[in-house]
TrEMBL record, chain A:
UniProt KW keywords: ATP-binding, Ligase, Nucleotide-binding, Protein biosynthesis, Transferase
Gene Ontology terms: biological process: glutaminyl-tRNAGln biosynthesis via transamidation; regulation of translational fidelity; translation
GO molecular function (one): glutaminyl-tRNA synthase (glutamine-hydrolyzing) activity
Organism of origin: Mariprofundus micogutta
Known partners and oligomeric status: Heterotrimer of A, B and C subunits.
Protein name in the entry: Aspartyl/glutamyl-tRNA(Asn/Gln) amidotransferase subunit C
Gene3D superfamilies per the UniProt record, alphabetical: Glu-tRNAGln amidotransferase C subunit, N-terminal domain
Gene that this sequence comes from: gatC
UniProtKB/TrEMBL annotation, chain B:
Pfam families according to UniProt: Amidase
Entry annotated with the keyword Protein biosynthesis: yes
Family of this protein: Belongs to the amidase family. GatA subfamily.
InterPro entries given in the database record: Amidase, Amidase_CS, Amidase_dom, AS_sf, GatA
Protein origin, superkingdom: Bacteria
Subunit (UniProt): Heterotrimer of A, B and C subunits.
Protein name per the record: Glutamyl-tRNA(Gln) amidotransferase subunit A
Function: Allows the formation of correctly charged Gln-tRNA(Gln) through the transamidation of misacylated Glu-tRNA(Gln) in organisms which lack glutaminyl-tRNA synthetase. The reaction takes place in the presence of glutamine and ATP through an activated gamma-phospho-Glu-tRNA(Gln).
Keywords recorded for this protein, A-Z: ATP-binding, Ligase, Nucleotide-binding, Protein biosynthesis, Transferase
Top-tier EC class: ligase
Species of provenance: Mariprofundus micogutta
TrEMBL record, chain C:
GO BP terms: glutaminyl-tRNAGln biosynthesis via transamidation; translation
The protein, known as: Aspartyl/glutamyl-tRNA(Asn/Gln) amidotransferase subunit B
Catalytic activity as recorded in UniProt: L-aspartyl-tRNA(Asn) + L-glutamine + ATP + H2O = L-asparaginyl-tRNA(Asn) + L-glutamate + ADP + phosphate + 2 H(+); L-glutamyl-tRNA(Gln) + L-glutamine + ATP + H2O = L-glutaminyl-tRNA(Gln) + L-glutamate + ADP + phosphate + H(+)
Protein family membership: Belongs to the GatB/GatE family. GatB subfamily.
Role: Allows the formation of correctly charged Asn-tRNA(Asn) or Gln-tRNA(Gln) through the transamidation of misacylated Asp-tRNA(Asn) or Glu-tRNA(Gln) in organisms which lack either or both of asparaginyl-tRNA or glutaminyl-tRNA synthetases. The reaction takes place in the presence of glutamine and ATP through an activated phospho-Asp-tRNA(Asn) or phospho-Glu-tRNA(Gln).
Alphabetized InterPro entries for the sequence: Asn/Gln-tRNA_amidoTrfase_suB/E (IPR017959), Asn/Gln-tRNA_Trfase_suB/E_cat (IPR006075), Asn/Gln_amidotransferase (IPR018027), Asn/Gln_tRNA_amidoTrase-B-like (IPR003789), GatB (IPR004413), GatB_C_1 (IPR042114), GatB_Yqey_C_2 (IPR023168), Gln-tRNA_amidoTrfase_suB_CS (IPR017958)
Assembly notes: Heterotrimer of A, B and C subunits.
Molecular function, one GO term: transferase activity
Gene3D superfamilies listed in its UniProt record: 1.10.10.410, GatB domain, N-terminal subdomain
Keywords: ATP-binding, Ligase, Nucleotide-binding, Protein biosynthesis, Transferase
Domain of life of the organism encoding this protein: Bacteria
SMART domains linked: GatB_Yqey (SM00845)
Amino acid sequence: MDIDVKKVAMLSRIRLTEEEAAELGPQLSSIIGYVEQLSKIDTDGVAPTAHPHDAAMPLRANVVTNTNRRDELQACAPKTESGLYVVPKVIE
Amino acid sequence: MPFSSLSDIQDRLNSGQTTAVEVAQLYLDRIAAFNDTLNAFVHIDPTHVLAQAEASDAYRAKHEARPLEGLPIAVKDIFCTQDGPTQCCSNILKDFHAPYDAQVITRLKEAGAVLVGKTNMDEFAMGSSNETSAFGACRNPWDTERIPGGSSGGSAAAVAAALTPAALGTDTGGSIRQPAAVTGITGLKPTYGRVSRRGIIAFASSLDQAGPMTRTVRDTAMITAAISGHDSRDATSVADAPEVDWLAACDAQDMKGLKIGRPKEYFVDGMDAEVRASVETALKKCEELGAEIIDISLPHTEAAVAAYYVIAPSEASANLSRYDSVRFGHRCENPEDLLDMYTRSRDEGFGSEVKRRILTGAFALSSGYYDAYYLKAQQVRTLIQQDFIQAFEEVDVIATPTSPIPAFKLGEKTDDPLTMYLSDIFTIAVNLAGLPGLSQPCGFASNLPVGLQWIGPAWREDIVLSAAAAYEGATDWSNKAPATFGGES
Amino acid sequence: MSWEVVIGLEVHCQLNTDTKAFCGCSTQFGAEPNTQTCPVCLGMPGQLPVLNTVAVDKTILTGLAINAHINLESKFDRKNYFYPDLPKGYQISQFAVPIVEGGYIDIPTKDGGEKRLGVTRIHMEEDAGKSMHEGLDAVSHIDLNRSGVPLMEIVSEPDMRSADEAIAYLKQLHQLIRFLGVSGADMEKGQFRCDANISVRRPGEPFGTRTEMKNMNSFRFIKQAIEFEVLRQIEIIEDGGEVVQESRLWDSVKSESRSMRSKEEAHDYRYFPEPDLPPLRVSQQEVDAIRAGMPELPGQLRKRFETEYGLSSYDADVLTQTLEVAAWYESLVAAHPADPKRCANWMANELLGRLNEAGKDLSESPVSAARLAELLDRIGDNSVSGKAAKDVLDAMMESDDSADAIIEAKGLKQVSDSGAIDAIIKEVMDANPAQVEGYRGGKDKLMGFFVGQVMKASRGTANPGMVNQRLKELLKG
């Protein structure tokens, strides 16, 4: 199978050089080629499993438990200004 | 002393023969002496380690000792800790300091453990050899030209070379069991939902589970007892999980009447002959101890690898989207625009294996392919679970080799990702089914350790532990240690 | 040949829970940027979501109110896309199995009937943060206080055939949500946001290519935007072109829409089940309990006001616009039970009118229901005429004085004493002998003239009923 590596890389927001794309393309094709053996397995009427156990979701009480920790939480941010995260201009 | 088990050290601390500070100093000295060779630790802060040990000694002087009082435990760089950096061995998290502790770290602290440092790992736990670490490969103490397994390679190497008596790892497709096997130590992946995942950097959320890597079965039980339990802030942590009496399970060392399943799909052509022979010998030993070996079939074993390499990368592709350089993590220099910031930061921050998995996952989920890959893999996951459910109607526990091959050489498989992936063939199904799995040493192949894997029904770690403890008690494999690092081989 | 317009609406409604959908951060509006964030809603490594139980209850309540089916098991999925205000790089949403499916909303039609508009589904999801660009040159600023606030997305069937129907649906839904108390639904605060899927076709033909109109933050703009888009599409097709499926942004300043920069991957959201959240299960008993606690809905309330209080459908409609108005009316009736219609009349026409002129909300009314009831009591016992009472109300709006005090001070107390009224009538008759003659000669219409003169002479304080009665008597001669 031929995979459009550049499209998938754009979806994933990863820059790929031409060389990287040339290397990754066949690798991805080989991985996907391998997993294609799944198509040989009869799964008609088999329910998909997303979670290992058949458990229900626990819920949380609607109670405020967090206080303002902005300074601490922004200590690891690449760029902030007056408590706001700064990024290159977002164009809509 | 360095190769003592955690419970031996505990006895000596309890009887006053030694102190937590002395124990910590012993291992710090060994780390100072050997870490350059092994690269097992990526972060160590001796002052902080000794401060914890002192605090533990002070606590012991005043109160009754807690379950892990004064015991050194290293943790994989995937666990968020408020002390020191948490980098997941990735450049994208270079110098990241988590403003919180993982729940298991909190539990270890509450149990009185002394946290030794952060161990090396494959970047974001993606790998089976520890070679994808941004901080360089880690080496196998049994042969430093060889890999220590992965992704918890640093934890495995550190325990195997007695740079720490115990460590925590995480296991998504075998990342505790396979490195434990190839470094000759014991490692347990608990039932999914047994241990909180909160604060553990996610690789594949429906598969990840943390667990101990130790010298003995009893040590894995001691640590699991401390770290397991419901966490209301992890919705996948199971609230009404059946309890296990962890230490009692290890004491019940009787194998009489135990029905051990031997799945034919785990004893196949292509696997290392000596590995196979070691495991067959181990099963004979179990028979001698009174167990009944029953041939079973887990027909979807090979499909498990294929299903895993759809499900794990898909979940990972989303889990790793948060590394976008907005709130934390590496940002490229002078981004031209927003897209440039994203694509260049992530290109620079992620290593090639991580990129490969992100792209594989993004592809498997992309429009037009979802049903053929992701949905199909989830259906096969159901079949894999059913295989085990059926098997456990017949047997109490399943025994298999942990890895089809012993530790391979550094660089041997890095060019061929797919072959590397296939080295997880015996561990992956356990994660897909959410079951407990333990690896313990059971011999050598070409002078390299071989692992015996025990697989139990969901929530029945007790069966796994008592089988493993019985085998351990009847053999000498757990006492072996690499001579280069002062052990008895 | 005519064109048929086809509109489907997606409403994003913020639930008014105290805390966010998946963490214990406050949702209070207007806090300093990023002060209501935590490792979970910042998407920090290893952090996990745990769903807010009240968000579930409020979504179920909304589903029940539109007569929808509640899925006792629903699931969460990840919707993947990169945006700086989306911390995890995916939004937790419900894609494959939403909690609510298949309801409807009835809107009134011009001919006095009703049209039923289908609601496909309501699903739960989390809001994103805010990106700010204004006044900034090369950068944007990100505030994540809103990140993780619980949202309901209410998706309609493509059942609307005009901008007016779309607005009627939205107003009905908006009112319903306010009644249910599940959201502030303040459009200016972004608590009730609407995207419109719009297409045109020749009647009877399959649906045309649709565009999605975004960023319309008032009913007026929604109407303008839909009308603009319909004309744009018709023009394209009539010029022989083809409508491109895309998202368009409404510019309310220029009153036009523009294409949103099409992203290179053209929305491949790669939905898949959220592995951090097992299925959401609710029991039928829980659903029944929520149903039992459901407040009276606007339609029911309107009907009750008509039957219980004998209100016209117009008054009933006005007095059920919001839960607050309805409650105010009912407390007025409780204080002045003698005449619910009088209550309706005075509240709907006089009080709300005055508040509206003053630009005030009912909650800011200087006249409480109790004070207004006091005035209505005086009308009821003929102490003040209806006309004079309006002056009294004007004064009450300006001061804290009681109705009685104002009536007294202004000398507006109604004269109902027949002797006094007779005296005034006699004065008027004496002053207008020709008209008296005329009336007695058969010019009945002159009665109005006399009433006017008497009222004027009494400065409006004479009881008009008695004036009428006594005039008839005395004019007979």
